[in-house]
């Protein structure tokens, strides 16, 4: 096992988090507690653990060419792709001042969201719509998508992912109104378990004017309605 001074890198990072009193649940971002070179060492450690998992599943990774590199691929996929939102810092978001005092509703979507449920680690794939009534700050529209990708590429439950995205947006742009709707299919419900193929979950967070004012909320809902029906 890949160890430094007799310690696993995951133990070293966990100690830093515990010392700081920081949460490290599946959908928390821990980038602040990583130092240079940690991610490479963590990926190596995860690879070794996945290799042991394959061994416990009684898969002959030496003779089976299809699984020979699987532990490496899974470790890389978790740390650099599907769970990168736990380990990477928040994407850089450029803000612009709202010089013309825009105060009407605008919407962005559908933004594709990809995640994995924290219960089974199988995919959750769906779409997200965001509504904003700006105050003093604006951000470029691609940044809604970048922020959503960052929040969703962690083991998640959809309800918490929706709130996390709303919290990040609120911190960034302090809007007068914020609406986030996510509609996603959970493969833990289709690939396995109850095997419901056509069932989706919809979560919604309404804040500010969208929460207080029914007409504003209805305007958002009508704007995001797919014109194709
Ligand atoms: N609330 C919520 N539940 C989720 C989400 N993703 C997956 N789940 C559900 O979490 C539940 C976990 O239930 P458990 O009873 O612990 O697991 P299980 O025995 O595998 O359950 P089954 O899926 O019913 O076979 C399942 O009902 C999943 O469908 C999510 O984003 N939000």
TrEMBL record:
Enzyme Commission code: 3.5.4.16
One Pfam family linked to the record: GTP_cyclohydroI
Pathway: Cofactor biosynthesis; 7,8-dihydroneopterin triphosphate biosynthesis; 7,8-dihydroneopterin triphosphate from GTP: step 1/1
A GO molecular-function annotation: GTP cyclohydrolase I activity
Gene3D superfamilies reported for this sequence: 1.10.286.10, 3.30.1130.10
Annotated TM spans: none
SUPFAM superfamilies xrefs: Tetrahydrobiopterin biosynthesis enzymes-like
Catalyzed reaction equations: GTP + H2O = 7,8-dihydroneopterin 3'-triphosphate + formate + H(+)
Keywords: Hydrolase, One-carbon metabolism
Residue stretches making up the GTP cyclohydrolase I domain: 47-225
Keyword Disulfide bond attributed: no
The UniProt record lists the keyword Hydrolase: yes
Name listed for the protein in its UniProt record: GTP cyclohydrolase I
